[in-house]
Write a structure and sequence with these properties.
- By secondary structure, the chain is α/β, with parallel strands linked by helices.
- The protein has three helices and ten strands; from the N terminus they run βαβαβαβββββββ.
- It has a six-stranded mixed beta sheet, covered by helices on one side.
- It is globular, with a radius of gyration of 15 Å.
Amino acid sequence: MKAIIASDIHGSYEYTKKLDKLIEQEMPNKIILLGDLLYHGAKNSLPNEYSTMDVATTLNKYSNKIIAVRGNCDSEVDDMVTDFDIMDDYKEIDLDGIHFYISHGHLNEKYKNLFENEYLLSGHTHVYNLDGKHLNPGSIGIPKVNKEHTCFLYDNKTFKLINLDDFSIIKEKNITD
């Protein structure tokens, strides 16, 4: 199973185009979006090429592959312009026999105790993390501590943290180790 996992786009059309290029290049089975897709949020500056409708139109091309959850900046208006559901706070999926809880990250109390074959995928902090069982792809639109605009490429139990500026691999983790 191949998946691209992204979070915190915040209306950045510049980096949505780069995500689109990665999707076309990798042809994933699933695209997992961890919230905060269109609106930049009151605490954030506008990202380059801020265009919520262009972001929605680009993502809508992949609606049959997208699994998404609601971020703290997502609303019913965002749900009306996307062709995929973004209003669930949590979802659960299985990839290659491994169970994943997915959420944006602002409501993670539910997933404090994960079993051996379970992981949490969330965004929200805009800081990538590949350590432990709580994995965060960072932010596509507005990275914070780590300045790279990042997402995950998941393929056969391996996560690759991808820098969207040059498609280089920053870090890699095999979850069977």
